[in-house]
Design a protein that fits this description.
Shape: globular
Number of domains: 1
Order of helices and strands: HEEEEEEH
Distance between the termini: 34 Å
Mean pLDDT: 87
Radius of gyration: 13 Å
Largest sheet: 6 strands, antiparallel
Oligomer: single chain
Strand content: 35-45%
Number of strands: 6
Number of helices: 2
Length: 102
Amino acid sequence: MITKEKILKIAKQYLEDRKREYIYIEENLEKIFYEDNHEFINNKGEDNVKNVCVVTYHTEGYQSPESNFISIDADTGEVLYTLYKHGRVENWEEDEDGNLLE
């Protein structure tokens, strides 16, 4: 398993690479959630089971900050997906092949 310090760096780099605006990211390592054998459906609609770490970041909301969650493969460091209140963030910033929309 990758360390939580490394997971946090991966999350910060992912946000920077995606040019996502946010207020702050949870940097308390105790608040990085870990789950063995997390089941999810990837962006291609395939079932997956992986060990994941979830990092929370907050964006500006109407009356208070809104929480968003970056799921990262705890074994490889690959970012799997990001969730916000309306679903996966990648669904509105990527095309079908995973390329960033401009």
